[in-house]
Specification:
Elements: H1 6-49, H2 55-74, H3 81-91, H4 99-111, H5 119-150, H6 156-165, H7 185-210, H8 226-229, H9 232-261, H10 266-283, H11 292-301, H12 307-327, H13 334-352, H14 356-372, H15 375-385, H16 391-402, H17 419-436
């Protein structure tokens, strides 16, 4: 195809890429905002004007009914983060046809107080948008080239409008002949960068204009006392033990709720999960919700609670997360774990009279590393919330707890043999390749 104005055509496509980024930012911002506003409405505004005894239990039971009906009709949405990533590795694709169902399925547990995080839904959304963007780029670029070839001197605004209208097409209508498109790597990278940058800008602009939705807080650094260094082994052991409590609780919850799942009793399953959530949430309200918005407030309010209550809150949050996920209140584990590590860490900091964030860093990182058996991942995830000044202690806690093999019976994924075994396998494979050479 011979184009008369390659520069203007390039700018035209980059403008389209910016629109794609804007759409992605808008959907993600709206998802988080709806979650935040919905939680505020259901759990703060309505109770202030409606004095009903047992409100928490009633809302959780209603939530269980709604979640159960949703899964009965539409299926188990969203996938867990591990399943979503595994699908991409297996298929080299991620289906974006069910994005509305992913949005709805991940919002429902958040709105009704489930002890699950938004990250499962967000990961599925981001993966879906990645492949949707890739396909849209290919299809609309072909459309742009065809329209310009048909009328080289025609208005570029018309071409741009036709490309943007293509963003409204359902997934079943997104099609392009893959053997025709001469898609250069440099063009794909440039378009992706433009879409990414525009998405970040638009997302921050929306936050500035209309306020943030659910967000990830970042804790402030505090002084580490000398006595605190001697407590490192104990605190890592606490995080490791907390991780095992979660794994054992997860297996227990899976055993209980699989009985109903095997009989296709999704509604009863979710209502039972809502009942447990409502009963425990009535007694210990901070054990509910994702924990993301409570992390920041806990940093300034933990002195209101006794050390043993803080530890109990963290443990019950871990327990409720397993109950919610296995009963059909699908969501992420990371945000609740971050909050649990925070609560348990503050509790032990008071008991041992040591630096609070020092205890939180060691307990939280060890907890996440134990559950996921990923030391490096635990360090990165902890650094999102915890002060980077403590990265040395994150590395220590992550590798000490994350390198201890788990019994197969309690692993989240039985095939995940652990970080050390993976490194040993890579080393053996590498030696085998070298010997063949």
């Amino acid at each position: 195809m011979n184009l008369d104005k390659p520069l203007s055509n390039g700018l035209l496509f980059m403008s389209f890429a910016a629109v794609v980024g804007t759409v992605i930012a808008g959907v993600i911002w709206l998802y988080l905002k709806i979650a935040n506003v919905g939680v505020t409405l259901i759990w703060h505004v309505i109770p202030e004007h409606l004095n009903v005894h047992g409100y928490t239990l009633i809302v959780c039971l209603i939530g269980g009914l709604v979640v159960g009906l949703f899964h009965k009709k539409y299926g188990p949405y969203p996938q867990s983060m591990q399943d979503a990533v595994s699908e991409v590795r297996r298929r080299r694709r991620f289906s974006y046809a069910n994005m509305p169902l992913i949005l709805a399925g991940s919002l429902l547990p958040l709105l009704f107080g489930g002890a699950v995080g938004p990250e499962a839904g967000l990961v599925s959304l981001l993966l879906g948008f990645c492949f949707w963007t890739k396909d849209q780029f290919a299809m609309q670029r072909l459309l742009m080239l065809r329209l310009i070839e048909e009328d080289p001197d025609g208005p570029r605004g018309y071409v741009f409008g036709e490309m943007v209208r293509g963003l409204l097409l359902p997934a079943s209508k997104i099609y392009f002949p893959k053997d025709v498109l001469p898609w250069k790597k440099s063009e794909a990278i440039s378009a992706g960068v433009v879409a990414g940058v525009s998405a970040l800008i638009v997302y921050e602009v929306l936050n500035a204009l209309f306020g943030r939705g659910l967000s990830v807080p970042h804790l402030e650094v505090t002084h580490i006392s000398t006595a605190g260094h001697f407590a490192a082994i104990l605190l890592i052991a606490v995080g490791f033990g907390s991780g095992y409590l979660y794994l054992i609780g997860h297996k227990f919850a899976k055993f209980i709720f699989s009985f109903l799942q095997d009989r296709n009793l999704d509604i009863i399953n979710a209502i039972l999960g809502g009942l447990i959530l409502g009963l425990i949430g009535t007694a210990i309200p901070m054990s509910m919700f994702s924990g993301g918005n409570m992390i920041q407030s806990m940093q300034y309010e933990y002195l209101k609670y006794t050390p043993f209550l803080l530890i109990l809150i963290g443990i019950m949050k871990l327990f409720l997360t397993s109950i919610c996920i296995e009963s059909g209140w699908r969501g992420g584990q990371l945000f609740p774990m971050l909050f649990s590590g925070l609560s348990i860490g503050y509790g032990f900091a008071q008991l041992l009279s040591i630096s609070e964030l020092y205890a939180v860093v060691l307990v939280t990182t060890a907890l996440i590393a134990t559950v996921f058996q990923q030391p490096l991942g635990a360090i990165v995830l902890s650094a999102i919330v915890l002060p980077t000044e403590y990265v040395g202690w994150m590395i220590v806690a992550g590798f000490v707890a994350g390198c201890i093999p788990q019994p197969e019976a309690i692993r989240l994924n039985p095939e995940n043999t652990g970080f050390v075994d993976k490194i040993a396998t890579y080393a053996r494979n590498f030696r085998g390749i070298e010997q063949k050479r």
